[in-house]
Amino acid sequence: MKITYDKNADALYIELDDQTPAHETQELRPDLMIDKSNDGRLLGIEILGVSSKVPADQLKNISYEVA
Q1: DSSP conformation letters of 50-65
Q2: What is the pLDDT of residues 18-56, one digit of tens each?
Q3: How far apart are CA 66 and CA 10, in angstroms?
Q4: C-alpha angle with apex 11: 31 to 61, nearest 5 degrees?
Q5: Would you state the pLDDT for residue 18?
Q6: 3-class SS at 59?
């Protein structure tokens, strides 16, 4: 898993699988898209307008845990 933030686009991308090419991008809302494989598996999540949802100081320290 890889999480990236593009401050120019103000977009956060959560990549769940970097080995499988995306077959389809589905817009769930104007600010939320998902990438899916050709067999329907979720590959990534893109969130637009992140700075209006998460304070900027928290974007600098993004981390994740594996449960």
Answers
A1: GGGTS-HHHHTT----
A2: 889 899 999 999 999 999 999 999 999 999 999 898 887
A3: 25
A4: 125
A5: 86
A6: helix
